[in-house]
Write a structure and sequence with these properties.
- By secondary structure, the chain is of the alpha+beta class.
- The relative contact order is 0.09.
- Among the domains are: 7-66; 78-163, Glutaredoxin (3-Layer(aba) Sandwich), CATH 3.40.30.
- It is 38% helix and 8% strand.
- It has a four-stranded mixed β-sheet, with helices on one face.
- α2 (27-38) packs across α3 (43-52) and α3 (43-52) packs across α4.
Length: 232
C-alpha cells in the first residue's frame, strides 16, 4: 500500500504552513510531522513532503541528511541519543554510551532485535550545564549516570506495551527537562535557578554590583576635534 497523507494530515499541514510566509519555509516542521506519523523519513515520505509544500525533492533530501534529528531508516520504539560532546564527555557521557551499548547489545546506529531500542551518539543537545544528557523522542533527560540510564531503560520496557507498536515521542506530561523523579538530583550548579521574586530582583538592581564594588565611575576625557591634518 502506497504511503499517503490523509485528510487529517493535510489539514494539519495547512495549519503549520499558515504560520510561515510561504510553503517551502515550513519544510522543517512538516518533516517533523511526517517523521512522527511514519516513524522515519524514507524516500517515499520525503517525496510526499516535497509534493505537499512544493519543494524540489533534492532540497528535501538535503535537509533530511543535514540534520541529525531526522532519520531515514527505521528506529526503535525508544530512540536513545546520548551526547558525548565536551561537557557531557567530561561528565561521563562516553561511559554512559558504552554502558548502553553493552546493556542493549547493539552498536550506535543499530536497533535491538525486538525493535524496542535504537542507539545513537548525539552532537551537543544544549544541556551543557547538566550533563550527561540523553534525548529520547522529544524528551531530554539530564544529569544522567549509569544507574540512572538503567532505571530509564527499565521504565521504557514497562511502557512499551502501552505504545502498541508505535514510537515513543514524548511523555504524557510533556518533555522532561531536568532529572526524572527518583533519579539522582542534579549536580551543584546544574540547570537553571528558580526565578527570583520581583521584590528581590528590584533589591538586586539597586544594590552595588559585587563585581565592581565601590569603584569610581568611569569618566573618560572628551574626544579632541579632528582638524583634518595627518597625524605623524
Amino acid at each position: 500500500m502506497a504511503l499517503a497523507f490523509n485528510d487529517e494530515d493535510r489539514a494539519k499541514i495547512e495549519q503549520i504552513v499558515a504560520r510561515y510566509p510561504n510553503k517551502p519555509a515550513a519544510l522543517l516542521p512538516i518533516l517533523h510531522y511526517a517523521q512522527d506519523k511514519f516513524g522515519h523519513l524514507a524516500p517515499e515520505v520525503q517525496l510526499l513532503v516535497a509534493h505537499a509544500i512544493d519543494v524540489p525533492p533534492p532540497r528535501v533530501r538535503e535537509v533530511v541528511t543535514f540534520y541529525e534529528m531526522y532519520h531515514e531508516h527505521p528506529e526503535g520504539q525508544f530512540h536513545l541519543e546520548v551526547c558525548t560532546n565536551i561537557s557531557c564527555h567530561l561528565m561521563g557521557g562516553d561511559a554512559v554510551l558504552d554502558h548502553l551499548r553493552k546493556k542493549l547489545g547493539i552498536a550506535c546506529g543499530e536497533h535491538t532485535e525486538d525493535g524496542m531500542f535504537s542507539l545513537m551518539e548525539a552532537e551537543c543537545l544544549a544541556s551543557c550545564g547538566s550533563g550527561v544528557c540523553m534525548k529520547v523522542g522529544r524528551d531530554y533527560y539530564e544529569s544522567l549516570t549509569v544507574d540512572a540510564v538503567d532505571a530509564l531503560v527499565d521504565r521504557f520496557k514497562a511502557m512499551a506495551p502501552e505504545l502498541k507498536g508505535h514510537h515513543y515521542i514524548e511523555g504524557k506530561d510533556g518533555p522532561h527537562v531536568g532529572p526524572v523523579k527518583g533519579f539522582e538530583p542534579p549536580r551543584p550548579g546544574a540547570g537553571n535557578p528558580a526565578p527570583a521574586p520581583a521584590k528581590e530582583k528590584e533589591a538586586e538592581a539597586a544594590a552595588p554590583s559585587k563585581a565592581t564594588g565601590d569603584l569610581p565611575a568611569f569618566n573618560p576625557p572628551p574626544l579632541k576635534k579632528d582638524d583634518g591634518k595627518k597625524k605623524k
